[in-house]
């Protein structure tokens, strides 16, 4: 108990000293986020400093063991770190699919050699990762993947095509699902392999989205050589690791409803845009009705996320709760942005113009439409709930 | 930060409350009192047993003979009652009446009333509403000082268990315009009680006061503040009841569609029903959290209590509507028959959702408390 | 044109003279409706008079041919009659499954002998009919019916059980679907037969509903003798006639949304119950929002019913439109009553008490829950739309 | 009783409008002007063809060189434009501008302006909004008498085609506080035009008037009445556009799910998608009726016009949201790509739904007109 209080005091003091002032406000656009990598793009010197200082302490991955470069913090310490960062509104020093996704999978399933090779550069922000999962035409049917890896003794030769690979054009390495046994039943012939995006035969093409951004790519793999040493876990067991990663992804996406409500409250945004009446109520009573119903759901949802986390810690969790959180959280976030653009009216419709921040709001609104598609569609989550929780069908 | 996980004690209580309600006050019991046109509308024997279990005095401090269990614990009893549609004075006496006396009563009044309630020997009721929809600010009933006490003139509607209560707590306006709480004895002069059977086969009364003698419950000046707390407590426990009711209606419906065949196929395999059921599951999960947060806030005396209570009541009311509507629709024709229980869940859902403020009342209050 | 105007004038004059004053206000409860039959129950002498006068002119079934007792009116004349009755708020003189359902089916598919036998007593309100369609456990799967009719030369012997037979305990005759060929595929072995409810072996048991009323029965058929002369159309073609009847029923039920909005408007009811504010708006802004959205849908739905009728007359109709009207109309009616009880608050919850008309509102509210089940569930209508109109699946 | 069935003439027009838009102004054309960053935002050649087809002058009386087709007919052209997301001055010039000049203009102004519009040689715009949400009652722009005319001071937002209009009809307040309509020429002194590209790749402008010379459009005193009618006309035609857009988005989505396979199965066979599609079908049927009723009412000069217009706009806006949201969700990942058209339907749905009053604005107005 005393140790934790000491830790809090030390952390607070260190953050006060080391977190640059400009890193103490929320990221407003993509360039405000630091993704690291071989050719890192820093918007400012402060951004670089902040990442390097945190990485040095392993605090970009606070709970990873120190032997792999992590912070080696206990759950309680990590929570204190988050709280103290929250207190000064410190920005995340490093956004990383390495930290969020492949890192945890390697810690759980990877060989010692793979951990030693890959985890420290992830913590230091030196290698940026992307995920090779979905394939064209497969959609939610992930297990139907066709990318083939042919065994050549010490290496595989991989051919195929991936789609929706986030920032593949900016990533250094890829964790990729491939079919190693074409004769096995769907899920049973899949393996998880890692390769450098600079390997000959890897090509990427950004996909332009309706929001105008291109965060995703098509990735073409033509006779790509992947060393067997880069196989995660066992051959043909990749589906197990994939499911673990998917659950992680789902939780990340379902957090969106919450993150959003952690920003400026929707009602404040609506009040700014639509005004308040003399009684201190939102000026448009019908909009107020809709905002209030959203707000209720958002608060009840935030409490539900907390409750389910707390129950999981207390060992009381229902399985498959992540499907429920993913479903509800993403639908909430879509509703939030529909209400936001309704409140902002014509201002929210401006795509390019001198004012209105380059169409940030309509682009963000359009972006939310993917929430209920990526990481398992809403329909897939509802199937999971009805089958795994309710036992229907 | 409200507590959102039940500890072991609470989980044991939950089990025993659920067992008690399922054994002693199942839906069959509601049918029995309904079909017998029971004058009380509940079994006094069962109430005595509930007193023995500690439910009657759950919210009464130990010094006055109660169990002092707190709201999270009492909410579990209400949830179990909701699951079984158990008819009893639990809500009117042990939640509303007890809270009013505990929060507003003088020491002497507490010592007089609460131990007897805990023993199951005294029934209470709370008379607030004067309009068909909950409008706590509308108080036209007048309390005029008379001797040591007051006389009341006016009328109250929708008084749960008003037909059997031994003591009735009444909100009324004093000559200076302030709202206070007053205690009326059953059978008092000038008190007219009109019993009404509601859609859920429970009883509510219309009370008319025509110069009815009453005494102040504690300090008249503190009545309005206490009443606001009592209304929050009542709304939170109705939310817990609605949660139990929604859960049970949902589980019965899922079980039904998982058995019932149509066109030779189990209807629970139809994806449109599956998705609707999955959505309802998610909504009920939200109600669970909101109800627990509201009850925890009451126990902790959190200043966010009114906000969380309105959250719980609005959400519980909305989802109980959905759960019972979907319940009947998914049961199909048999859902419309009196023979199946699912209709009884719908008939309880609406009055419980309306009492002390419906979905719209609490959504509006929530928005106002949030600052917009 | 002139003829129609003359017809209008004559009709108006006749109605003025013959429609008793007490029949010029809406039916408030079931006893206000006249169902006729062998043992007719008239609530008042006016009610009897009104039925008899209208029946004498054939105006209980205005468009049926005069040779079968009908009014022999053209569509235009019938419309004028409806308008003129509407003008003075005249009540329907006779409610009858004979007029609504089996009559039109007989006109379309019945033999001359059957028309001659059955139609005139229907017009005169002398015979009350019920419908033997659904069977226990079958639900929406009507074609799976099990009631057997065994061929005995000049008659059938029928055994089986029916459910949801409206007012079977008060009806004189039944139109009933039976299986005449147990080996044929589901729909192909069904016939439509008529029998007197007084035939030995016919027993009825009312079903108590959640509303407290018992408008439906279980009907048990044990060795019931049905003459072959009472077979409608051809043997084993009953499914064709059943579908015709079902479409009729569906349209009748989908009319409910409209009928309801033809009564006192929902908003007026809400205004009476909840009050208006100083600006003349409903006092509860959230209730006003919900009422207005319902009101919009109800008006758009009424226009849609009109449009589809008009298109059908102009030969432009989409088939299967009745499924859409049935679906939307019944869901609207359910919403209407949810809003009505919300507005009435505690008053709407009173089941038995001195005031509140014996719980009329909560009983009517509960009754609406069957709208989306009877005559083909909402789910069945959505299936029909998606398959027959959208070509899905 | 409004007319709800199209006659043969109307159906022929519908066919030819649909053929024209699909041939000459398909979605591809929107992509072309967008990607070329076309300064006008539409093809002037295509507009000349539309003029030749009679679309530019559809609402212009025959005496002024138009086709005098009426609103039901013009609505069919708007619906076809909605189906194809056709970029053209149809709405700003041929609906808003023409209606304003026809209803408010003097005979001389009509004779000057309308024939040239019908020939496709003059473009118009209507400048009303001063706030980000449609609030027609908020008019702070001031018109001060100056010589034979007026000078304008103020600013207008969200002026569709304001960047290309040759003449702009502006609502402004005269010194006596009344709202009138004024005519400003493009390039007038003290007129600043800031072009803005909207989410639907169309153009709207912010106009600033700093002592800009203007003339009254007809009789200043009659301006407010005419403006109210023009706003109803505009809202009705936007509803028609939203109907076409919703129908096309819906039909493309149904076609997509009827082809697309997942887990080896056509996804259109999944019942939950079927039921959602069937529901959307029903909603679009309601929009069809509401739009036709509003346009018929305009043609008939019915006093129920404002009510029916608000019905149509509220319902069309609500259903266009649903149709495009479901469209993207049912398309899945590809729906999020710029390559597929369905996203463009969503991007047009929102500004068309918001312009001249969104779902809430018109629901509120509908309720007020109904009397509550």
From TrEMBL, chains A, C:
Segment forming the signal sequence: none
Q: Which GO terms describe its cellular component?
A: plasma membrane
Provide the Acyl-CoA dehydrogenase/oxidase C-terminal domain boundaries. Answer: 236-390
Q: Which SUPFAM superfamilies match?
A: Acyl-CoA dehydrogenase C-terminal domain-like (SSF47203), Acyl-CoA dehydrogenase NM domain-like (SSF56645)
Q: Which cofactor does it need?
A: FAD
| Residue span(s) of domain Acyl-CoA oxidase/dehydrogenase middle | 130-224
Sorted UniProt keywords: FAD, Flavoprotein, Oxidoreductase
Where do the Acyl-CoA dehydrogenase/oxidase N-terminal domain residues begin and end? 31-126
Per the record, the similarity remark reads:
Belongs to the acyl-CoA dehydrogenase family.
The protein depicted here goes by the name Acyl-CoA dehydrogenase
Originating organism: Albimonas donghaensis
From TrEMBL, chains B, D:
Q: Which residues form the Acyl-CoA dehydrogenase/oxidase C-terminal domain?
A: 222-362
The cofactor required is: FAD
**Family to which this protein belongs:** Belongs to the acyl-CoA dehydrogenase family.
Pfam families according to UniProt: Acyl-CoA_dh_1 (PF00441), Acyl-CoA_dh_N (PF02771)
Q: Which InterPro entries match?
A: Acyl-CoA_Oxase/DH_mid-dom_sf, AcylCo_DH-like_C, AcylCo_DH/oxidase_C, AcylCoA_DH/ox_N, AcylCoA_DH/ox_N_sf, AcylCoA_DH/oxidase_NM_dom_sf
Q: Per the database record, which ranges form the Acyl-CoA dehydrogenase/oxidase N-terminal domain?
A: 8-121
Organism the protein comes from: Albimonas donghaensis
Q: Lineage of the source organism?
A: Bacteria, Pseudomonadati, Pseudomonadota, Alphaproteobacteria, Rhodobacterales
Q: What is this protein called?
A: Acyl-CoA dehydrogenase
Q: Does the UniProt entry include the keyword Metal-binding?
A: no
Q: Which domain of life is it from?
A: Bacteria
**Molecular function (Gene Ontology), one example:** acyl-CoA dehydrogenase activity
Query: Which UniProt keywords are given for this protein, alphabetically ordered?
Result: FAD, Flavoprotein, Oxidoreductase
């Amino acid at each position: 108990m005393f140790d934790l209080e000491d830790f809090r005091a030390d952390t607070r003091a260190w953050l006060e000293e080391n977190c640059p002032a400009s890193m103490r406000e929320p990221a407003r656009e993509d360039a405000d986020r630091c993704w690291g990598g071989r050719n890192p793009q820093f918007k400012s010197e402060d951004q670089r400093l902040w990442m390097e200082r945190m990485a040095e302490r392993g605090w970009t991955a606070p709970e990873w063991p120190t032997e792999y470069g992590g912070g080696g913090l206990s759950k309680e310490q990590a929570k204190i770190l988050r709280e103290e960062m929250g207190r000064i509104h410190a920005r995340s020093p490093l956004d990383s699919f390495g930290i969020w996704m492949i890192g945890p999978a390697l810690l759980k399933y990877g060989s010692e050699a793979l951990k030693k090779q890959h985890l420290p550069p992830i913590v230091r922000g030196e290698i940026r990762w992307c995920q090779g999962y979905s394939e064209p035409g497969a959609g939610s049917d992930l297990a139907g993947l066709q990318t083939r890896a042919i065994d050549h003794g010490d290496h595989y030769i991989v051919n195929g095509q991936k789609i929706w690979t986030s920032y593949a054009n900016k990533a250094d390495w890829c964790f990729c699902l491939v079919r190693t046994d074409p004769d096995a039943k769907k899920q049973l012939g899949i393996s998880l392999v890692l390769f450098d995006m600079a390997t000959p035969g890897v090509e990427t093409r950004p996909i332009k989205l309706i929001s105008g951004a291109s965060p995703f790519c098509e990735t073409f793999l033509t006779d790509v050589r992947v060393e067997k040493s880069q196989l995660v876990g066992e051959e043909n067991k990749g589906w197990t690791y994939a499911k673990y990663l998917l659950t992680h992804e789902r939780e990340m996406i379902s957090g969106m409803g919450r993150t959003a409500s952690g920003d400026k409250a929707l009602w404040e945004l609506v009040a700014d845009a639509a005004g308040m009446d003399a009684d201190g109520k939102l000026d448009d009573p019908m909009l107020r009705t809709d905002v209030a119903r959203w707000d209720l759901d958002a608060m009840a949802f935030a409490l539900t996320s907390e409750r389910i986390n707390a129950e999981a810690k207390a060992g009381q969790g229902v399985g498959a709760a992540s499907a429920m959180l993913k479903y509800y959280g993403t639908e909430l976030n879509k509703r939030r942005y529909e209400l936001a653009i309704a409140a902002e009216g014509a201002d929210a419709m401006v795509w390019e113009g001198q004012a209105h921040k380059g169409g940030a709001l309509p682009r963000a609104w359009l972006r939310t439409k993917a929430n209920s598609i990526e990481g398992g569609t809403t329909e897939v989550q509802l199937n999971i709930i009805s089958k795994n929780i309710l036992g229907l069908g | 930060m409200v507590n959102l996980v039940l500890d072991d004690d609470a989980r044991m209580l939950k089990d025993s409350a659920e067992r008690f309600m399922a054994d002693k006050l199942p839906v069959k019991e509601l049918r029995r009192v309904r079909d017998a046109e029971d004058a009380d509308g509940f079994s006094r024997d069962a109430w005595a047993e509930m007193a023995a279990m500690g439910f009657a005095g759950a919210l009464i401090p130990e010094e006055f003979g109660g169990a002092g269990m707190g709201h999270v614990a009492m909410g579990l009893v209400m949830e179990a009652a909701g699951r079984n549609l158990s008819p009893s004075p639990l809500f009117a006496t042990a939640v509303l009446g007890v809270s009013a006396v505990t929060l507003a009563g003088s020491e002497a009044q507490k010592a007089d009333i609460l131990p007897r309630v805990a023993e199951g020997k005294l029934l209470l009721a709370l008379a607030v509403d004067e309009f068909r929809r909950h409008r706590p600010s509308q108080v036209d009933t007048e309390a005029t000082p008379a001797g040591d006490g007051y006389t009341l003139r006016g009328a109250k509607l929708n008084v749960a268990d008003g037909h059997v209560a031994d003591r009735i707590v009444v909100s009324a306006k004093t000559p200076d315009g302030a709202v206070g709480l007053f205690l009326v004895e059953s059978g008092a002069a000038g008190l007219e009680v009109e019993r009404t059977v509601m859609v859920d086969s429970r009883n509510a009364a219309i009370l008319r006061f025509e110069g009815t003698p009453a005494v102040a419950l504690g300090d008249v000046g503190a009545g309005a503040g206490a009443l606001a707390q009592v209304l929050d407590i009542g709304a939170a426990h109705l939310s817990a009841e609605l949660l139990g009711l929604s859960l049970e209606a949902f589980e019965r419906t899922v079980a039904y569609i998982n058995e019932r065949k149509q066109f030779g196929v189990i209807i629970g395999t139809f994806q449109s029903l599956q998705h609707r059921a999955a959505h309802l599951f998610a909504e009920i999960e939200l109600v669970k959290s909101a109800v627990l947060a509201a009850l925890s806030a009451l126990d902790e005396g959190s200043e966010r209590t009114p906000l969380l209570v309105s959250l719980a009541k609005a959400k519980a009311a909305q989802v109980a509507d959905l759960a019972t509507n979907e319940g009947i629709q998914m049961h199909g024709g048999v859902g419309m028959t009196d023979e199946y229980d699912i209709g009884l869940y719908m008939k309880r859902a609406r009055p419980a959702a309306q009492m002390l403020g419906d979905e719209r009342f609490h959504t509006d209050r929530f928005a106002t408390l949030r600052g917009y």
